[in-house]
Automatic annotation (TrEMBL):
UniProt-listed InterPro entries: EXOC6/Sec15, EXOC6/Sec15_C, EXOC6/Sec15_C_dom1, EXOC6_Sec15_N, EXOC6PINT-1/Sec15/Tip20_C_dom2
Organism of provenance: Panthera leo
Function: Component of the exocyst complex involved in the docking of exocytic vesicles with fusion sites on the plasma membrane.
CC terms in the record's Gene Ontology section: exocyst; plasma membrane
Domain Exocyst complex subunit EXOC6/Sec15 C-terminal: from-to ranges: 437-785
Protein name: Exocyst complex component
Biological process according to GO: Golgi to plasma membrane transport; intracellular protein transport; vesicle tethering involved in exocytosis
Domain Exocyst complex component EXOC6/Sec15 N-terminal span(s) in chain numbering: 75-244
Record key words, sorted: Exocytosis, Transport
Length: 828
């Protein structure tokens, strides 16, 4: 095995020697080339190794037989020796060829050196010639690199240029304030262009700058929105005025068209006795002319307000994804503006212009909100506008209720009503519910009626102040027709009379009748455009007319009747006037029926209370006549100047009483125009009051003494009163009814004149007593006054038997009368 190893090593040195590979070799020779020889030697060595491997018996090596290893080594040495021999044989066999090959190689060496020189020279030439090519090649390479770089740059620039162009476009849009377009451009940059060039620094700068641009756009758009809100706040009144004007024109046109339709369907119908076709055609023509004139002047809310800031701001915030913030801000600001608009001026109630400005601002506000509601999506919702309108409506009603209460001019209240109706119609046209406003109008209607009543109270007072309280004189037919045209008076007897003649009433009657009709017209004006039925309007007119009659006119009449300067003649004329006004109430009902076309026979039709009103006024006037007549009697009675101690009467009645009777005769002649019962009651009341006054004169506590002569004189005056009563100063009394007013005086005076005490005392308490009306207390009082007179004037009466007997009789009668009086008190 060691020999084999040495053999391998020797061959390896031979084969690996460098000189061997450099030996000259001529391929044309027949010898083996060195490479071939080397290959064969290696093949032999490999074969030898294979033989060795095949002859190995590993199991014998590891066998447990004694001396197995030694035997194996011996066999291996023998095998090696055999192979060494074979190798020597092989080498010897090929040695000559190997030597020949080396010889040939040595021959080739010279040629190889020559070739090497040639190759070296050629290489040098090639190198010299290639230097210029290398330079050019390097230039070409450099150009190719530059070209590639340029191509790359162009590609990158083509990628970056759209980004730069879009960013430049963004800057232009920002400069031109086209913010919505700018936001769209930003979206394109972020979604399309920036991802392509995100690796470049300029792109990062642009990306970092976009949020700042968005914030700038938000601030600018919000600033524009604030300017817009301020602008519409200033122009709300103009917007509202335009909207209300359009609503008024539309309403006028609709009313005129309705009138035309009524004319077309009822050309042969008469309304209130008149044919209104021509008037309606004129009104319709005028309405069409006004419509044509105003057609060119009609402006819409878009013409008055530029809404682009709202649209722009809404779109911007929508693009930015912050639409909710914008909606909340807009609604909050508009609610603040609504509160400002709804706040009225303190002196708004003074003029109609104050109310008009208030309404136009509110209409302008809600017209803008309605426009925003319909042209935007979500910025203003119907629920929001309804909530805002309900809040505003409550405030409007409270403001109108408070300020209208200060209005004392019915014309101003009527103009306010027309403004409220126009205000309600305008907003109703935009879809806002206005029923509560019409409910408010019913409250204002009551206030309007109150102001009308106050105004007509002044009118009635002026009429009463200007009246002369004498029948209306007429001298010709024209004057007669004028009065008849003002007041529905019918009297066949008066018509038959020749001129000049007189109406029984005074000038105030036709004036009052005309003013009541004017009041009805004024009430009707308020009921127009309230969208109420004819029945409701009829009911309102009748109720307001009843208030005028029962409160205003009645109060004015009562105040007139109670005025101190109104005399009996005036009171008589007032009673006559109220009688004719009462008769005219049915004509007022017909007048209202003609206006409303509601028949009086309708179940729910309200009746006028004028009959009771004028009856109450007449009763008050009658009572005032009785009072004043009694006061006049008291004035005459106060002129009485009796000598209560006279011994003999004058033989004629007192002057004051004759004057009083003459006065009563003249007054009762005036009463001939009064109803019979009124004159009779006045006459009876006067006689009773005169009788009572005379009785009180006799029984006056300050009167201490009365002589028989005074009683006789007093009896003469009572006789004159009885003669006056029997002369029937007022027709209609039956028998001596009027004379009974003086029966108490007559029986008392007869008792004293006849001195018939025995009869009085004997018959006292009997129904058929001659002195039934003489009260014991009255007789006692008068008798004591006469007794005191007898004692004072007859100092020596005790020395005359007749006088003594008379005095004793008086004392006896006094005692009996006192006992009667005491018995009456105990019985009571």
């Amino acid at each position: 095995m060691l020999s084999l190893s040495r053999t391998f090593a020797g061959w390896s040195r031979i084969l690996g020697r460098p000189g061997l590979s450099q030996l000259p070799w001529n391929p044309g020779l027949g010898t083996v080339s060195p490479s071939r020889c080397r290959r064969e030697i290696l093949l032999c060595c490999y074969s030898l190794g294979s033989v060795l491997a095949l002859h190995q018996e590993p199991r014998s090596v590891y066998d447990d037989q004694p001396n197995a290893h030694k035997k194996f080594m011996e066999k291996l040495d023998a095998c090696i020796r055999n192979h060494d021999k074979e190798i020597e044989k092989m080498c010897n066999f090929h040695h000559q060829g190997f030597v020949d090959a080396i010889t040939e190689l040595l021959k080739v060496r010279t040629d190889a050196e020559k070739l090497k020189v040639q190759v070296t020279d050629t290489n040098r030439k090639f190198q010299d010639a290639g230097k210029e090519v290398i330079v050019q090649t390097e230039d070409i390479i450099r150009c190719r690199i530059q070209q590639r770089n340029i191509t790359t740059v162009v590609e990158k620039l083509q990628l970056c240029l759209p980004v730069l162009e879009m960013y430049s476009k963004l800057k232009e849009q920002m400069s031109a304030k086209r913010y919505y377009s700018a936001l769209k451009t930003m979206e394109q940059l972020e979604n399309v262009y920036f991802p392509r060039v995100s690796q470049y620094r300029f792109c990062q700068l642009m990306i970092e700058n976009l949020p700042k641009l968005r914030e700038d756009i938000k601030e600018i758009s919000m600033s524009d929105l604030k300017d817009f809100l301020e602008s519409i706040r200033k122009h709300s009144d103009k917007i509202g005025e335009t909207a209300m004007k359009q609503a008024q024109q539309q309403k006028t046109f609709s009313v005129a068209l309705q009138k035309q339709n009524r004319v077309q369907f009822g050309k042969n119908m008469h309304f209130n006795g008149r044919i209104p076709e021509e008037r309606n055609e004129v009104e319709l023509k005028r309405a069409f002319e006004e419509e044509d004139e105003n057609e060119e002047e009609v402006l819409t809310v878009q013409d008055l307000v530029d809404f682009s800031p709202v649209y722009r701001c809404l779109h911007i915030y929508s693009v930015l994804g912050d639409e909710e913030t914008f909606e909340n801000y807009y609604r909050k600001q508009r609610k603040k503006q609504a509160r400002l608009v709804l706040q009225p001026q303190s002196n708004m109630h003074e003029t109609v212009d104050g109310y008009r400005r208030y309404f136009t601002q509110i209409v302008g506000f809600f017209v803008v909100e309605d426009h925003i509601l319909h042209v935007t999506q979500g910025l203003v919702t119907r629920a929001y506008t309804d909530e805002l309108w309900n809040m505003a409506l409550s405030k409007i009603i409270a403001v109108l209720r408070a300020h209208s209460s200060y209005c004392t001019d019915p014309d101003l209240v009527l103009e306010l009503k027309n403004l409220i109706v126009l205000f309600a119609d305008t907003l109703q046209g935009y879809g806002f519910p206005v029923n509560r406003l019409f409910d408010l109008l019913f409250e204002i209607r009551d206030q309007y009626n109150e102001t009308l009543l106050k105004k007509w109270a002044g009118v009635f007072r002026d009429i009463f102040e200007e009246d002369n309280y004498s029948p209306i004189p007429i001298v010709n037919e024209e004057e007669y027709k004028v009065v008849i045209s003002k007041f529905p008076f019918q009297d066949p007897d008066l018509e038959k009379q020749s001129f000049p003649k007189k109406f029984p009433m005074s000038q105030s009657v036709p004036h009052i009748y005309i003013q009541v009709k004017e009041f009805i017209y004024a009430s009707l004006k308020f009921s127009e455009s309230l969208h109420r039925s004819s029945t409701e309007i009829d009911d309102m007119l009748r109720k307001s007319t009843n208030l005028l009659l029962t409160r205003t006119l009645s109060s004015c009449l009562l105040n007139l009747i109670r005025k101190p300067h109104i005399g009996l003649t005036e009171l008589v004329q007032i009673i006559i006037n109220t009688t004719h006004l009462e008769q005219a109430c049915r004509y007022l009902e017909d007048f209202i029926t003609n206006i409303t076309n509601i028949s009086q026979e309708t179940v729910h039709t309200t009746r006028l209370y004028g009959l009771s009103t004028f009856k109450d006024a007449r009763h008050a006037a009658e009572g005032e006549i009785y009072t004043k007549l009694n006061q006049k009697i008291d004035e005459f009675v106060q002129l009485a100047d009796y000598d209560w101690t006279m011994s003999e009467p004058d033989g004629r009645a007192s002057g004051y009483l004759m004057d009083l009777i003459n006065f009563l005769r003249s007054i009762f002649q005036v009463f001939t125009h009064l109803p019979g019962k009124v004159a009779q009651t006045a006459c009876m009341s006067a006689c009773q009051h005169l009788s009572t006054s005379l009785m009180q004169m006799l029984l006056d506590s300050e009167l201490k003494q009365i002589s028989m002569g005074a009683v006789q004189q007093f009896n003469l005056d009572v006789i004159q009163c009885e003669l006056f009563a029997s002369s029937e100063p007022v027709p209609g009394f039956q028998g001596d009814t009027l004379q009974l007013a003086f029966i108490d005086l007559r029986q008392l005076l007869d008792l004293f004149m006849v001195w018939d005490w025995s009869t009085y005392l004997a018959d006292y308490g009997q129904p058929a007593s001659k002195y039934l009306r003489v009260n014991p207390n009255t007789a006692l009082t008068l008798l004591e006054k006469m007794k005191d007179t007898s004692k004072k004037n007859n100092i020596f009466a005790q020395f005359r038997k007749n006088d003594r007997d008379k005095q004793k009789l008086i004392e006896t009668v006094v005692k009996q009368l006192r006992s009667l009086v005491n018995g009456m008190s105990q019985h009571t």
